[in-house]
Task: structure prediction
Amino acid sequence: MHSQIIVNLPVADLAKSKAFFSALGYGFDPDFTGDQSAALVLGDKMTAMLMAREFFAGFARKPIADAKTSTAGWVCLTCDSRSQVDTLAERALGAGGSAPREAQDHGFMYSRAFEDLDGHTWVLLHMTATPPKE
Result:
């Protein structure tokens, strides 16, 4: 149905956001990175455009929510293992992020979450099976 996903997120300080995600081991697509936005490469055909708040506002028709005080959604990323979930979450915390909740283990799915420097919630999860039928 769709061939690519691009999530657009407003950030207060683009340079600090780039440093934060670089500390987690992510890179940026230089063809789509400049002074006002940066294309954070999350995987094959998966990108998060980190956009300076003022630049982001030029595309928005509604007020920009403060992700530190409101929740509008989460960015969820699957990981290849529980170890990868833990490694990325610990890197995020070490780079200045925060943990909005404890790790969750549902047997078939393990997850941890972190908030980036702007309060956007990222959920990292590893699934080993489908959920049990109720």
